[in-house]
Design goal:
This protein is α/β, with parallel strands linked by helices. The chain has 2 domains: 2-161, Rossmann fold, CATH 3.40.50.1970; 164-348, Dehydroquinate synthase-like, alpha domain (Up-down Bundle), CATH 1.20.1090.10. The protein is built from 14 helices and 11 strands. The strands form 3 sheets. Strands 1-2-9-6-5-3-4 form a 7-stranded mixed sheet. A two-stranded antiparallel ribbon has the order 7-8. A hairpin with a 6-residue loop joins strand 1 and strand 2. The longest helix has 21 residues, at 201-221. The radius of gyration is 20 Å and the shape is globular. The relative contact order is 0.11. The chain binds nicotinamide-adenine-dinucleotide. The site of nicotinamide-adenine-dinucleotide (NAD) has 32 residues, from helix 2, helix 5, helix 6, helix 7 and helix 11.
Length: 349
C-alpha cells in the first residue's frame, strides 16, 4: 500500500513472519527506539538486526509520552554521534510511534525513519497518517506535527502476544473505521467479530487492510487535519476524557469504544439515529469492551466535563464531537454539557 503525503509518499507492507528484518539489515546508520516489552518478548528475532546498532528501550506507558523522554533519546542519539543520515527505526505501539515521529521530525530538522508497529491499534490505525504527539502539562497529544515514516512493516505475528485489553483496544479502532465507512461495512465487520475476538489471523489481516484503506482515503484528502480528517476523531472527544479520568488505566482504543457508545447515545437523543440503530451499533461495540475495565468511578459527569474542557478541540462553551447521523459521521460543534451528562448516565446504566 502506498500512502500519498506532502512530506513524501510512503509504503506499508504486510508480513506474517519476520522476513522483513532481512530488508532492514541492509540499511545503514540505524538507531532503534524499541518498546521494552517487545524487546524482551522478541529478543531472539530482533537481536540479529539491532546488535550492531545503538538502541533505546522505552517503557511504553502514557506518562512517558512526553518531551522529557524525547529529549533524553535525542541526547543519547547525539552523544552516540548520530548525524543527519541516521535512520531511526521505531518498533512498538502508538506510544513508541508518537515519540519516534516527534524525534525524527525535529532532530536535524528531519531524519528518515521506519516504523514497525507491534500493537493491533498501531497496525490498524496509527501507523499511517503521519501524526506525532506528545502529552504536555496534563494535556494529551498537545505537542506534535505531521511527519510520516519512509516505510512501515506490518507483521501480524506481533499481535499474538498482546494483553487482551490492548488487543481489544485495537478492535475499537477497527470498529470505528467500519462504522464510519457505512452500514454495509459495519455489518460485515460485526459478522467477523467472532473470528476477530478469537484472533483469527486471516480475518484480522482483512480487517486491518480494510481499516487502513478507509483511513488512507481520508488522510490523502486532508493530511494536516484541517477539516475532513476530523471525522477520524469519532469516539475520541469522550475517549480521551475517559483515558485521562482513569489515569490511563483505560487504553486508547478502549476509550474510543466507550466514546463511540456515548456519541451514539447523543445521536439517539438528538433523533439522528433510530432506537434499532443505536441498539445495533452499541451492541456490537459492547462486545469489544474488556469486562470490568471500565469502572463506574471514571464516569463522574463533572470530572468528565472538566477534562473535556482541557481538550485541544474545546474552544468555547459548546463541545465539538463527531456523531453518527444517517449512514455516516459528521462533525457537530454545538454539544451542550447537559447532553453529555445525560448520555453518560444512560451508558453507565
Ligand atoms: N499518532 C497517531 O496517529 C495515533 C493514533 C492513535 C493512537 N495514538 C496513540 O497511541 C497510543 C496507544 O498506542 P497502542 O495502543 O498502540 O499501544 P501502546 O504503545 O500504548 O502499548 C500498549 C502496551 O502494549 C505493549 N506491547 C506493544 N506491542 C506488544 C506486543 N507485540 N506484544 C506484547 N506487548 C506489546 C506495550 O509495551 C504496552 O505495555 C496512545 O498514546 C495514543 O494516543 C497515536
Amino acid at each position: 500500500m502506498i500512502i500519498k503525503s506532502y512530506v513524501g509518499d510512503y509504503k506499508a507492507d504486510f508480513f506474517s513472519d519476520f522476513s522483513f528484518l532481512n530488508e532492514l539489515k541492509e540499511k545503514k546508520n540505524k538507531f532503534f527506539i524499541l518498546d521494552k516489552q517487545v524487546f524482551l518478548i522478541y529478543k531472539a528475532e530482533l537481536l540479529s538486526v539491532i546488535q550492531e546498532s545503538s538502541y533505546y528501550l522505552l517503557d511504553a506507558i502514557e506518562q512517558n509520552k512526553n518531551i522529557d523522554t524525547a529529549l533524553e533519546i535525542i541526547r543519547q542519539m547525539v552523544e552516540m554521534d548520530s548525524k543527519r543520515n541516521t535512520l531511526l527505526v521505531a518498533i512498538g505501539g502508538g506510544i513508541v510511534q508518537d515519540v519516534s515521529a516527534f524525534i525524527a521530525n525535529v532532530l536535524y530538522r528531519g531524519i528518515s525513519w521506519i516504523l514497525i508497529p507491534t500493537t493491533l491499534l498501531a497496525q490498524t490505525d496509527s501507523c499511517i497518517g503521519s501524526k506525532s504527539s506528545l502529552n504536555f502539562k496534563g494535556y494529551k497529544n498537545l505537542l506534535g506535527y505531521f511527519y510520516p515514516p519512509m516505510q512501515i512493516y506490518i507483521n501480524t505475528k506481533f499481535i499474538h502476544t498482546l494483553d487482551r485489553k490492548d488487543y481489544l483496544s485495537g478492535l475499537g479502532e477497527i470498529m470505528k473505521c467500519a462504522i464510519m465507512a457505512g452500514y454495509e461495512s459495519f455489518l460485515s465487520t460485526s459478522q467477523n467479530m467472532g473470528a476477530l475476538l478469537e484472533c483469527n489471523e486471516d480475518v484480522l489481516l482483512d480487517e486491518i487492510t480494510k481499516a487502513l484503506c478507509f483511513k488512507k482515503q481520508v488522510i490523502e484528502m486532508d493530511e494536516f487535519d484541517r477539516d475532513y480528517r476530523n471525522i477520524m476523531n469519532f469516539g475520541h472527544t469522550f475517549g480521551h476524557a475517559l483515558e485521562a479520568a482513569s489515569d490511563y488505566a483505560v487504553p486508547h482504543g478502549q476509550g474510543v469504544s466507550i466514546g463511540m457508545l456515548i456519541a451514539n447515545q447523543i445521536s439517539f437523543q438528538r433523533g439522528y439515529i433510530s432506537e434499532r440503530m443505536i441498539e445495533e451499533l452499541n451492541g456490537a461495540i459492547e462486545r469489544i469492551i474488556t469486562p470490568g475495565l471500565i469502572e463506574k468511578e471514571y464516569f463522574s459527569g463533572e470530572k468528565y466535563l472538566e477534562i473535556m474542557k482541557k481538550d485541544k478541540k474545546y474552544t468555547g462553551k459548546l463541545h465539538t464531537c463527531i456523531l453518527f447521523e444517517g449512514d455516516g459521521v459528521k462533525r457537530h460543534s454545538d454539544i451542550r454539557d447537559e447532553e453529555i451528562v445525560s448520555a453518560i448516565e444512560k451508558i453507565c446504566r
